[in-house]
């Protein structure tokens, strides 16, 4: 659609700008979490925290980053994405500014247990940045026609998810060169800069802007269709959450995303320990191998989105979860570094493609509540990052390191098989869904 057509109806931004804005918002949203997780050791040493306290501290950003995806993504169905994205980014900025103040005032000698609850709260606020994922995914889905949503959503999530891997490479040098305070100031600056970019070009799809201009709903839908928008929300935040929750396919997609993205989060947390303890790799090598996994899964997600546009989300998901299953089998058998590296690569490819395939299917199966469905899928699916690592740790505890580390990947064999069965269920009932 021409720029003149958008200007005629006072529509700010366009699909390309909205995609760029959402991607930048999601990318910089990782800044607070990446820095907080890496520097948790500094707070542990200064405050004398025990392992349970450290575990809770590191979990706080992941908790807010997962739970807040649900209501904030549903908010997109009434706003278009601008307010929920800016709210989450602002909360993350507040968290980082609070941590800077804490470091200036108390670090390291004056930190004590009495400040631990405040540290938990600031960690929770920092995690708001990664809750932007579901907001951006819904915002982009409304801007793009369905035949291009796979590519657009894959690009958004793939580029945005590069952040953890890139930050893993940059943070050691930043901490060594600038110190703890300097690193926090630099990462806060990055987050503020990304937020400013979003303020300038990040706006909701035409329908939402027209409604804000006072255009009646039906007229707004008609004009938005002329401008290229194809899907529209059904109601309020609670309504869109309820509508998507009543659709059983939403919960199938949650389960699939639990394996692909939740499994991805779990491995980014588990792989450093796996490489250090089982293969005796140095700490830096283990970090780089984990960053490789993260970047690989993120980059392939872009191609996975395009593939989903060409052959459909279900067929792409079959390929993806088949790869996860194959990679997990290799990891169970891997006793050597080359074989383990191959297994990690195959799993990373499968998870990246799977993430793209799942969100290609969300607008198709839940077109009247994309925000609500994206919230359920993105929020609850991410809980795989909490659930899987303790299970893998249980294998090591019960079987010992020599058997426990490789055999722990049987968790992914089980998840891969279940995911394939669920994709088959979607594929086999698709024709009935279209008929309805």
UniProtKB/TrEMBL annotation:
GO terms for biological process: nitrate assimilation. It is found in: Membrane. One of its GO terms (cellular component) is membrane. PROSITE patterns: MFS. It is a multi-pass membrane protein. Residues 18-431 form the Major facilitator superfamily (MFS) profile domain. Gene3D superfamilies: MFS general substrate transporter like domains. The keyword Membrane applies. Its main location: membrane. Keywords: Membrane, Nitrate assimilation, Transmembrane, Transmembrane helix. The chain crosses the membrane at residues 18-40, 52-72, 84-107, 119-144, 156-178, 184-208, 251-273, 285-304, 316-334, 346-366, 373-396, 408-426. InterPro entries: MFS, MFS_dom, MFS_trans_sf, NO3_transporter. GO terms for molecular function: nitrate transmembrane transporter activity. Belongs to the major facilitator superfamily. Nitrate/nitrite porter (TC 2.A.1.8) family. PANTHER family: HIGH-AFFINITY NITRATE TRANSPORTER 2.3 (PTHR23515). This is Major facilitator superfamily MFS_1. It comes from Oceanithermus profundus (strain DSM 14977 / NBRC 100410 / VKM B-2274 / 506).
């Amino acid at each position: 659609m021409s720029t003149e057509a958008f200007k005629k109806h006072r529509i700010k931004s366009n699909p390309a700008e909205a995609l760029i804005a959402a991607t930048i918002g999601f990318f910089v949203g990782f800044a607070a979490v990446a820095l907080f997780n890496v520097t948790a050791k500094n707070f542990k040493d200064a405050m004398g925290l025990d392992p349970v306290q450290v575990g809770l501290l590191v979990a706080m950003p992941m908790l807010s980053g997962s739970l807040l995806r649900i209501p904030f993504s549903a908010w997109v169905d009434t706003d278009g994405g601008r307010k929920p994205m800016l709210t989450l980014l602002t909360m993350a900025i507040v968290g980082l500014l609070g941590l800077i103040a804490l470091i200036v005032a108390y670090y390291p000698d004056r930190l004590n247990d009495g400040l631990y609850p405040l540290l938990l709260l600031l960690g929770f606020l920092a995690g708001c940045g990664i809750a932007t994922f579901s907001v951006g995914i819904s915002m982009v889905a409304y801007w793009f026609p369905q035949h291009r949503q796979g590519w657009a959503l894959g690009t958004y999530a793939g580029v945005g998810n590069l952040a953890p891997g890139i930050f893993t490479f940059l943070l050691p040098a930043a901490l060594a060169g600038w110190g703890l305070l300097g690193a926090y100031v630099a990462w806060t600056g990055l987050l503020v800069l990304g937020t400013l970019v979003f303020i300038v070009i990040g706006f909701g799809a035409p329908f939402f802007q027209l409604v804000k201009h006072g255009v009646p709903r039906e007229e707004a839908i008609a004009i938005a269709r002329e401008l290229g928008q194809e899907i529209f929300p059904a109601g309020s935040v609670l309504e869109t959450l309820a509508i998507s929750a009543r659709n059983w396919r939403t919960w199938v997609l949650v389960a699939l995303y639990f394996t692909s993205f939740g499994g991805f989060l779990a491995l980014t947390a588990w792989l450093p320990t796996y490489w250090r303890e089982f293969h005796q790799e140095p700490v830096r090598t283990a970090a780089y191998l984990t960053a490789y996994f993260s970047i690989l899964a993120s980059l392939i997600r872009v191609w996975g989105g395009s593939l989903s546009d060409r052959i459909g989300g279900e067929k792409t998901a079959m390929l993806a979860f088949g790869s996860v299953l194959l990679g997990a089998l290799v990891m169970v058998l891997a006793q050597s570094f080359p074989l383990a590296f191959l297994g990690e690569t195959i799993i990373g490819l499968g998870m990246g493609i799977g993430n793209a395939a799942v969100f290609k299917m969300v607008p198709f199966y839940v077109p009247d509540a994309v925000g609500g469905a994206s919230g359920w899928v993105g929020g609850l699916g991410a809980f795989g990052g909490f659930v899987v690592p303790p299970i893998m740790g249980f294998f090591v505890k019960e079987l010992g390191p020599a058997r426990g580390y490789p055999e722990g990947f049987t968790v992914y064999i089980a998840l891969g098989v279940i995911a394939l069965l669920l994709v088959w269920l979607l594929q086999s009932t698709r024709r009935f869904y279209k008929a309805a």
